[in-house]
UniProtKB/TrEMBL annotation:
Keyword Nucleus: no
Protein name as annotated: tRNA modification GTPase MnmE
Residue sites binding K(+) per the record: 230, 249, 251, 254
Subunit structure: Homodimer. Heterotetramer of two MnmE and two MnmG subunits.
Annotated positions binding GTP: 230-235, 249-255, 274-277
Binding site for (6S)-5-formyl-5,6,7,8-tetrahydrofolate: 21, 85, 124, 455
Cofactor: K(+)
Localization: Cytoplasm
Pfam families, A to Z: MMR_HSR1 (PF01926), MnmE_helical (PF12631), TrmE_N (PF10396)
């Protein structure tokens, strides 16, 4: 018999209300011993999912809260097991007293993701759906939440199930003819196999490709602000973030450490890094800052190269241009409120994207906001669940696509059915890793161990 688990489902900070979840065969018996409904009777006899007011008792029987509880009877619960929720006051004291009362009555602490793991094992959701739960809990943007909600609802799982089923049927047909090696194989079989495999291959590659954007949707994009001293990097960081985060002075070499600030532009989470101005210097501290700036630029997926448009291009600017080589970069011509001295055409020769802004007046910032999602390929995308946000799923999709492609080539060449069957089975296994139909236990464990406790 599986254990009955309990955990706090609300955040670690003290809040007005805290929720404790309980799941497993002993749930009703355990919760009945620590909660007494106001109107008498037992919580387990109250209607399913109806919140009931009553007294909550600690392990030594003292009343520690007056709160709301409900039960959710198996199999119609999140985990498919008997479950209960205790919605009490959210202080760490009440929550830990309640947990310890539950443990004293036989419940055990739930491991990270264990409720969702049980839901997956009970067939309440496929593995891609369970992974979407995690995305939904950690979503930063509305768009990321929207995409994850659709995946929780089975958008990815259903599509993969369909493709997988077609391959399973195809394998079955070929296996049937493998048993009769002397008979001529109906050419229709090869034709329809080619068609199915070709379509599956392109659909799977298409899905895998969405991961490039999906990763940005989930993790955001690291973006270094690079430029010579006094170009206005720190001013730009402050203007973009809308807070007075970094120190700004007219003394060149003000910023030394890398200063991080996260902003949201539509679906894009931009992790901005303000850095020390690049120049030739003897100052050992400034040198270390410049070293960090260059490392940060290297580690970033997008660079904002800031130039002072009220001045001519200097050797330091050339150093900045050299550092952006091969990197996705937007040239930001700052100080547009001042008369221009900059050779703009020269800058345009080096960069695909150039915008004029004034960090001081805010002029041009909107154009920069509009440009960034376009440059990272996130404008006009839909968040209907079709975007893969998960490296594991993307890798399995590529493997499945490759095996389908190999099976397609084998079918086209009219090779022996065994070859087609072997590759198609490889694809079926890879797809099963996404839905969870054919996934190793240790992989399942790793996936759920990344969840929070109580989810
Ligand atoms: N208080 C509370 N809020 C919550 C959750 C929770 O567990 N408790 N959730 C937890 O993640 C999410 C909601 N997800 C849920 C998903 C399924 C079921 C559930 O009871 N499913 C049953 C019955 C479905 C039905 O009524 O048709 C089932 O699948 O059989 C409950 C919550 C978000 N909000
Ligand atoms: N007129 C005008 N001045 C600006 C603008 N942006 C920044 N400045 C001024 O330029 C000077 C340098 O600004 P910072 O933001 O500190 O420049 P930085 O690139 O971070 O400089 P370091 O940290 O030294 O590398 C300050 O005096 C700012 O007030 C702008 O858009 N217009
Ligand atoms: Mg600075």
């Amino acid at each position: 018999m599986s254990k009955t688990i309990a955990a706090v489902a609300t955040g670690p900070a003290a809040g007005p209300i805290g929720i404790i979840r309980v799941s497993g065969p002993q749930t009703l018996a355990i919760v009945d011993t620590i909660f007494t409904p106001q109107g008498g009777g037992a919580l387990s006899e109250r209607p399913n999912r109806l919140l009931t007011y009553g007294a909550l008792h600690s392990r030594d029987g003292k009343v520690i809260d007056h709160c709301l509880c409900c039960v959710m009877h198996a199999p119609n619960s999140y985990t498919g097991e008997d479950m209960a929720e205790i919605q009490c006051h959210g202080s760490p004291a009440v929550l830990s007293e309640t947990l310890s009362a539950l443990f004293a009555k036989g419940a055990v602490q739930a491991e990270p993701g264990e409720f969702t793991r049980r839901a997956f094992l009970a067939g309440k959701m496929d593995l891609s759906g369970a992974e979407a739960v995690h995305d939904l809990v950690t979503a930063v943007t509305t768009q990321a939440a929207e995409n994850a909600a659709a995946q929780l609802d089975g958008v990815v799982g259903t599509h993969i199930f369909e493709i997988r089923q077609q391959l399973v049927d195809l394998v079955a047909e070929f296996l049937a003819v493998v048993d009769y090696p002397d008979e001529e194989i109906d050419s229709h079989l090869f034709d329809s196999a080619c068609e199915i495999l070709h379509r599956a291959t392109s659909e799977l590659y298409d899905m895998a490709e969405t991961y490039e954007r999906g990763r940005i949707l989930r993790e955001g994009i690291p973006c270094a602000i690079l430029g010579r001293p006094n170009a206005g990097k720190s001013s730009l960081l402050n203007a973009l973030a809308g807070v007075d985060r970094a120190i700004v002075t007219n003394i060149p070499g003000t910023t030394r450490d890398v200063i991080e600030e996260t902003i949201r532009i539509g679906a894009v989470v931009l992790r901005l890094y303000d850095t020390a101005g690049l120049r030739d210097t003897q100052d050992p501290v400034e040198k270390m800052g410049i070293d960090r700036a260059m490392k940060q630029a290297q580690a970033s997926s997008l660079i904002l190269a800031v130039f002072d448009s009220s001045d001519h291009i200097s050797d330091d600017d050339l150093m900045v241009i050299a550092r952006t080589h091969g990197k996705r970069t937007i040239a930001v011509l700052n100080k547009s409120d001042l008369p221009s001295e900059l050779d703009v055409q020269n800058i345009q020769r080096h960069f695909d994207y150039v915008v004029s802004v004034s960090a001081k007046t805010g002029e041009g910032l909107q154009e920069l906001y509009d440009l960034i999602p376009k440059v990272v390929g996130m404008d006009g995308m839909s968040f209907d669940g079709s975007t893969i946000t998960n490296a594991r799923q993307a890798a399995a999709l590529v493997r499945a696509a490759e095996r389908c492609e190999e099976a397609f080539v084998a079918a086209q060449l009219g090779m022996t059915p065994d070859a087609i069957v072997m590759d198609a089975e490889g694809a079926i296994a890879a797809l099963g890793e996404i839905t969870g139909q054919t996934v190793r236990d240790d992989i399942v464990s790793t996936i759920f161990s990344k969840f929070c406790v109580g989810k």
